[in-house]
Specification:
Layout (H helix, E strand, L loop, with lengths): L1 E3 L7 H17 L7 H14 L2 E6 L5 E9 L6 E10 L8 H15 L2 E6 L6 H9 L22
Parallel strand pairs: 4-5
Antiparallel strand pairs: 1-2, 2-3, 3-4
Length: 155
């Protein structure tokens, strides 16, 4: 079952699950990570701010998508970012990844977003295939050749 968490009804157990899934994601990609408890508290705070959607695949706990929303510059609608997508290793390769991304897009649309973006590593071929199958494109607007790149750095 895939469902969205709501700050008005989310339980401590659900927040613990979210914290654990995000912690596992970071361990898997060898990123430094806060404890699951710290992540759960942070997610509760983000959900309370109204600019974050959590989509959870559960029973068994299978995956998570995190969407952040913000006001757009170029349109009066919101724009969304799929900032995290994680499926537990034993459930990968089926439809769950696709279902989580679709549910994340639906959540963004319901909030009034008309655009969603994401960043993915070039070596993550499976994820790139899923995103492209769902209509995501990594080309500069108006170009079929020039690739759009994502840069980041700590401040």
């Amino acid at each position: 079952m895939i469902r969205r968490l709501d700050i008005r009804s989310v339980t401590g157990d659900e927040l613990d699950l979210v914290g654990r899934l995000l912690h596992d994601l970071n361990l898997e990609v060898e990123d430094e990570t806060p404890t699951p408890q710290v992540l759960a508290a942070r997610i509760a705070e983000l959900l309370g701010g109204g600019d974050t959607e959590i989509v959870l695949a559960e029973d068994p706990p299978g995956g998570i998508a995190v969407v952040r929303l913000r006001k757009a510059i170029w349109t009066p609608q919101l724009e969304a970012s799929l900032v995290e997508l994680y499926v537990v290793p034993e459930l990968r390769g089926g439809r769950l990844e696709r279902e989580l991304v679709q549910a994340a897009m639906d959540a963004a649309r319901e909030h009034g977003a008309d655009f969603i973006e994401l960043a993915v590593g070039s070596s993550d071929v499976r994820a790139r295939e899923i995103y492209e199958d769902l209509g995501f494109d990594n080309h500069e607007v108006g170009s079929e050749d020039a690739l759009a790149l994502h840069y980041s750095r700590p401040l």
